[in-house]
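Box S2. Input/output pair 1.
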Amino acid sequence: MPDEFSDKLFDKVPDAPSDKASEKASEKASEKASGEARYLYCIVHSPSGGQENLGNIGIEKQAVYTIPYKNIAAVVHSCRPVPYDSKDPKKAEGWVLEHSYVIDQATKKYESILPFSFDVILREGDSQIEQWLGRNYNRLWEQLDALSGKAEYTIQIFYDYDFLKAKVLMANLELSDMQKRIETESKGKAYLLSKKLDQKIKRDLEAESRLLEEEFLAQIKVHADRLVVNDRPSRIPENFRDKKLMASYSCLVHKNNVDRLGEVLEGINSLQGFRVRFTGPWAPFSFVDFQELK
C-alpha cells in the first residue's frame, strides 16, 4: 500500500517507553488523539449516491453512516485517531465481533462490498475521505462491480483415515500380502515388516488423497468464480476433529450458483468416509485488494 495512504493508518500502540521518551510519546499521542478520524468498515456499491445512516450498530454502539462518492461509499463511524487496543481479550474479541456485525449488515443491504479488516482508522474527516474515494474510484468500482451478486464461502473436506487406509490396502495386493505376513513372522521380522508397510501405506495414502482432492476440486471450480487454497485453515469444530483435513478452500460464488455448488458438496459428503463443511455467505475478504490504492 503506498505511503500516502498507509501513513494515515494506525497500528497497535506499542508498550510505553520510559523517562523523557515516555513524556514525549504521551504528548505526541495526546496531539494525535485530539484530531478527527474515521473508522473504516467497508466500501460499498451505493447507487443512491446520498449519505445513509445505518444506526448505532458500530463498535461500542457508535453511529455508523456512509460517506458517498458517485455510486460508491465508505461505511464509517467517527472516532478519535487512536487504535482500538485493549489488554482484556474479551473486550478485544467483542470489538472484532461488533466490527464483523457491521460488515454483515452491509453485506445484506448492498449489492457488493469491499470489507476492511478490524481497526483500520484514517486520521481524516468526511470531506478528506470523499476525496480519497475520488482518487481511487476506478480501482474501487472495478472490484465492487466484479463482486456484484457474489459472496465468499468456505469449504473444508475431511476424510476418515482408517477408511481410506483400508481402501488403499484392498486396492494393493502387495500391501495386503505384507500385512498377512506380519501375522506369521517372528517378532523381529514382524516389526521391520510393519515399519515398511507403514511407509508404503503412507505413500499410497498421500497419492490417493491427492487424486481425490484433484477430483473434488475440479467439481467445485465449475461453480466458483474464484478459488483460494487455505494453507492455514480456520479453527476446526470439535465435531470434525475425528477426521483428517484433506482440503480447505475459500470460494467466490455468484448467488445463482450457490445451490449447484451445494449439490456437488452434498455428493462428496455422502461418500463413505468423507465429510464436508460448507459455510457462508461471508463478505469477500479473500478476494479484495487494497494494495494499489493511493
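Box S3. Input/output pair 2.
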Amino acid sequence: MNPTRAIRRFSFAIGASCSTRRRVNLICNISDIKLISTTVRAQAADELRDRILTGRLRPGDRLDLDQLTAEFGISRTPIREALLELSFEGLVAITPRSGMAVVGITPQDAVDNFAILAALAGKGAELATARITADELDDLRALAAAIGRSDDVVEANRRFHRAINLAARSPRLLTYVRQAQRVVPGNYFELFPEQERRSRREHAALLDAMEIGDGSEARRVMEAHVLSAGEALGTWLAKTAARDPGEQTRHETAEEATTRQTH
C-alpha cells in the first residue's frame, strides 16, 4: 500500500498481547481523512495526536506497534518515530516493560493548551496590525471570504491564520505558534460546526481592527477567538468523559452529543 494515499477508514483493536488488568477502550473509526503532503511519520503523528486530543484514545489505552503498522499500511519505523514524538509532547508514555500507552489530556489541559496558543496568536495579531501592508490586508480579507466557500474549511482557515502570523514578521513568534497549533485537532470544525460560523464573525472583527491600526483590539479579538475554541473542546471532552466509554460506538459531533444528552 502506498503510504501517501488517503486513508479511507481506520479500525483499531487491541490484541491479546496488549491485554491489561484495566479495561481498555479504543474508539478509532474514521472515514475520508485527507492527508496533507508531509512525511509519513508526520501523517501518523498528526492522526494519533488528533485521536488523543479529541478523546478517541483515552488515558491508559494501550498502543500496539504491530497493529498500528497494519492499520496505517506503513513500516514500523515511522510509527515508532511518531509515537516517540508524541511522547516528547507528553501525550504518550513509553516504558521498557509496559510498552506504550496513552497519557492523554484532561478537559482542563485542553483549555490550558488553547490559552497558550491564544496568547501567542494574540501577540501575532498585534504585531501584524503594525507591520502589515495594504496589499496584505486585502489578501487577508480575500482569504477570510474564501473560508465560507471552501470545500476544505480547515485548510482555508489555516491559510487565513498563517497569513496573519507571517504578516507579524517575527520568525521566533512563528516558530512558537507552529508548535502551539498542534493542540488544535485536525477535525475541529467537524466536532464544532457552530464554531465555523462564529469564526467568520470574529475574523471580520479582527480585520476591522487591523484596518484601522488598532493593535490592542486586534490582540483582544484574536485571544478571545482562540480561547472560545479551547473552551468548546474542554466542555465537550468533559461531557464525553462522563459517559461510559463502552457506550460510544461512533464519533459524534458536539451538537449530536448535546442533543442526545438533553433528551
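Caption for Box S3: Residues 1-37, 246-263 have pLDDT under 50 and may be disordered. The radius of gyration is 20 Å.
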